[in-house]
Amino acid sequence: xxxxxxxxxxxxxxxVSVGNAQNNDAKTGVTVFFFPKASMxxxxxxxxxPASRELPLLDPQRNTQPLNALVISGGSAYGLAAxxxxxxxxxxxxxxxxxxxxxxxxxCQSCIFDLSYGKGNVRPDREMGYKACQNAIAGNSPxxxxxxxxxxxxxxxxxxxxxxxxxxxxxxAARLGRLEVGVAxxxxxxxxxxxxxxxxxxxxxxxxxxxxxxxQALLMNQYSDLIVGNTTIAAVxxxxxxxxxxxxxxxxxxxxxMARSIRPVFTMADGDTVYAISLSDGDVQSDVNTVGVLxxxxxxxxxxxxxxxxxxxxxxxxxxx
Length: 321
Prior knowledge:
Layout: E1 6-7, E2 17-23, E3 28-45, E4 51-53, E5 67-73, H1 82-92, E6 97-98, E7 103-104, E8 107-111, H2 126-138, E9 154-155, E10 165-166, E11 169-176, E12 179-186, E13 192-195, E14 198-201, H3 214-219, E15 233-238, H4 244-261, E16 262-263, E17 273-278, H5 288-308, H6 314-318
Parallel strand pairs: 5-8, 15-17
Antiparallel strand pairs: 1-11, 2-3, 3-5, 3-17, 4-8, 6-7, 9-10, 11-12, 12-15, 13-14, 13-16
Helix pairs in contact: 1-2, 4-5
């Protein structure tokens, strides 16, 4: 299947523009995915501890409205304040659902837990969200690594932060004929990260000179009591024209790419969530299974990009925990 795929830069996707803002000292930030033409979306929550805004709106059984923006941030539940600034920015620029009494921007958000890295008392707020949205409207900057919502992301945490490693936000995209799929993912996992079956990041030995297995640590009950702060947030973007129900299925299938790359994943100590968005500029007719499988393959590449783009020296990492 992968031999049929043509990789392409995420920035070539039409219908979405990315903006970031972060506090580099506090190690937290916001990434906004802005849709100049509001786009239909759905999502699945697979982990036990999500921090989110307006997710029920994306249920196929609801009166689902097209999204004006998707927000991913740090700050755990405190970070949900960032969407207030995003909504204000969108309203000022004339984006939102027209109620007849004013515009109401449709904004969904998910947050990672990054309070254990950097300064936990500094969180994304209205001002940071507004800035990230401004940047998304002004230009497209899908930057990988320690930027935006990936600023405080870490992985491999059964043993606590001292044996964890830095992660971030990653991107990948591919084409299959006229079908295009892109994935953005903030990798803030309890588990270890694998690429093509090889561990590339995660739980280390106490001296940080080698790896140990996060899965084995959980199986043997050798883990810290403070492992609740994890969440991997992914968003799948496609030019395929899909219903809300189909998009929810795409998100489900795409999550298998997370399962191949993150071990363990979807635990009660994670808030793992996958969004799927049908970009309004797209009119490609495609089978939902094809889109989902393609998304699962691109997901693996985006997760690897988050790791490879986020390498920092051990001394810098340790100085922020």
